[in-house]
Amino acid sequence: MAAGQGLQGKVRGAAARGSAFHVTFPTFTSTQLDPRARGKELGTHRRRAIIANFAGYLDLFTVAGATPSQVRAWGKQALDRSAAWAPQLADEITGIASGAGLEPWQVAVVNARTEILAAVAAPGEGECSTSVVLPGPRTVQTWDWHDHLRDAPMLWEFESRPGHVVRTFTEAGALAKIGVNTAGLGIHFNILRHRSDHTDVGVPVHLIARRILEEAATVEEAAVIARSAPVSASTVITAVTSDDAGSIEISPAGVAVIPPEPDGVLQHCNHFLDPALAEGERHATDRPSTYERLKHLRDHVAELSGDDHTARALAMLSHGPDAAPVCAHPDQTQPINQRWETVATIALDPRAGRMWVHQGGPCQVTEETWQTF
Questions:
Q1: For residue 47, what are the domain limits?
Q2: CATH number at residue 51
Q3: What's the DSSP call for residue 78?
């Protein structure tokens, strides 16, 4: 079958699976420049969703083996570390808590969920796959998470300073995740696991993503911000501009930047690519599908290099167990910490400071199901 015929078949198949009504993520635009006031405004308007997200994480942490006293202590520690590293972001967390009727440590828990899961050494299959091709950039990623938290995501737009707009796909109460800014930079976001991850909770990686969106216009500036944060958990933030990209691998053992291949291709899943950091890799045994997913991306570079973000999303369409589980669907027989779902499919346009967001996995994507944000 020719590549064009295969893609047309995927388009027809996805359209057949679609429906006349497609659910989209809630959107909120902040009007406040002051961090605490901006947080309080968000917390007030998204109160129910933030409270529900916090409750959902408490359920997840309990199943993963954390006690309530541990979660509270880790939330307070995350807030303290955040205040030392970026006091304005700690102020915003406090503002969100005030608006939502929660304690600041509770909102800090939502922002530090990666750190708490690392502290309890939570295992599990699943997670995200990212592809970037330069120039352009032409990007797409799947964002996988636990299905009982599928209602947590939202799209948030705000000005961190006059004239500097940030747009982010995030979770209710979390300061940022995947996004773009009007300085021409965007970021993708994938979780990692490293043997150096530890229980002395540091700066949440979601706050690193937020500061990058607030302050960086280049990949180098993004890497400098990442290196400045004392962390206890690992992640990879792939920063992209119109003509540059770098996967910034972050761990307590150090930070490394993976450049694109000579042909402009940069792809990442949930294992370290830097040779030194890969020596402490935890996904090698915990989540072997990450290697299968990266192979799928590399096998579909031609389709992932196109200008059409719908075609790029459909190139990610692959289901386990017979193929790489890039598009994930939960196994309802498993406990909540072992159920994974592709909650969103996202493409970035840093040049225009916008993103396209589809609720669900690539198998549900059509040209009509995108939110332009």
A1: 33-119
A2: 1.10.10
A3: H
Domain tally for the chain?
2
Q: In the beta sheet, which residues pair with residue 304?
A: none
Contact present, 350 and 182 (Cβ < 8 Å): no
Question: How many other C-beta atoms are found inside a 10 Å radius of the C-beta of residue 45?
Answer: 16
Of 280, 257, 286, nearest in space to 121 by CA: 286
Give me 107's structure tokens.
Answer: 């909102």
- Whole-model pTM: value is 0.93
DSSP state of 362: G
Rounded Cα distance between 333 and 341, Å, is: 14
* Sequential pLDDT tens for the chain (373 residues): 333 434 444 444 444 444 445 789 999 999 999 999 999 999 999 999 999 999 999 999 999 999 999 999 999 999 999 999 999 999 999 999 999 999 999 999 999 999 999 999 876 666 799 999 999 999 999 999 999 999 999 999 999 999 999 999 999 999 999 999 999 999 999 999 999 999 999 999 999 999 999 999 999 999 999 999 999 999 999 999 999 999 999 999 999 999 999 999 999 999 999 999 999 998 666 667 899 999 999 999 999 999 999 999 999 999 988 899 999 999 999 999 889 999 999 999 999 999 999 999 999 999 999 999 9
E strand or H helix at 144, and its extent?
A: strand 138-146
Same-domain pairing of 300 and 252: yes
**One-letter identity of residue 6:** G
Residues 277 and 357 grouped into a single domain: yes
**163 Cβ partners below 8 Å, 6+ apart?**
182
* Domain limit, last residue, from 119, 148, 164: 119
AA identity, residue 195: R
Q: Are residues 18 and 83 in the same domain?
A: no
Residue at a domain's end among 119, 145, 180: 119
Q: CA–CA separation, 281 vs 121, rounded Å? A: 13
